[in-house]
Each structure stands twice: as C-alpha cells, then as structure tokens.
Amino acid sequence: MNFVGTFWALVPPIIAITLALITKEAYSSLFIGVVIGVCAIILMVSLGIGARESMMQMLQQWGDLTIINVYNYGGGNAKLDDKALSQIQAMDNVQIATPFYSSRVSLRLKSRNGRYAAYTNIIGIYPDAFEALGYKLSDGTSFAESKKDYSMVAGAKIL
After folding, report:
1. Other C-beta atoms within 10 Å of 96: how many?
2. Backbone phi, then psi, for 139, in 5-degree steps?
3. pTM to 2 decimals?
4. How far apart are CA 79 and CA 68, in angstroms?
5. Of 27, 36, 42, 152, which is most buried, counting CB atoms within 10 Å of its CB?
6. How crowded is the C-beta side of 38, counted as CA atoms within 13 Å?
7. What φ, ψ does residue 81 adopt, rounded to 5°?
C-alpha cells in the first residue's frame, strides 16, 4: 500500500506531536528545536544571498566582459593599423572599434606661488567611442558638440 499523499501519511507526525505536548519538558524542547531550526534556515538563506551578492560585485569589478582588447606586441606579420581596425569594426556584433592609447605623464606647472607637479594618465580614444564605452560627463560639452579637431576631457574619475 502507498500512503504518500493520503491522510494516513499525516498520522505519525500528529501522534508524535500529541505525545510531545503531554509533558512540559517535551513541549519546551520541541519549541526550542523549532526556534533553532527556523534560525538555522534564516541563517543559511542569508549566507546564500550574501554569497551571491559578493559574487555579483566581484564580477562587476572585473569590468565589461564584452570588451575585447587586441594587443600587438610584435611577432608575426600582422599590423594593428587603421585598415585592421576598420576590418574589426565591420565584424558582426561589433559596436565600436577604437585604438586605446594610455600613457602616464608628469605635469609641471609654474605659478606665482611656486611650482606644482602632478602625475596622471592620459588616455586617447576615438570621440565616437566615448559614449559606447560607458564614459559619462558630469559637466561640460561632449566630443559630439565640439567643433574642434582635437578635444580633451579631464576629470578625477574618468574610468
């Protein structure tokens, strides 16, 4: 006989709870067990949610996984030039292809109060790649609004 899903499947737990409720010691130990069990379930669910959030933050710190960096450190006959860049741009599902030049430079300023020096990174990209790569301006005009051949964006937290 199969008692699964019938009234007879509930009889043993009902009898066990009824017998446990007969004595106060059994009742209090049952109550403590239920409280501990509920707390353990809440703790495990919280740990699972925390681990998932931690993993998501770690993945977000890695950056955009759809950006592909191509380097040409020598070796071979392939050249990474404007022709190669236009071929990459013509590929399916490519939103933008831009050279990315980064250099650490020293800036020295002389004023009436003395000399100032600062070290900073200068990054060069195509103007139309600015918004496609997720860079946002907090103030000023964008490259699209600039009428000049060369433009510059300066800020404390560009990347």
Report:
1. 15
2. -160, 155
3. 0.45
4. 17
5. 27
6. 6
7. -125, -170
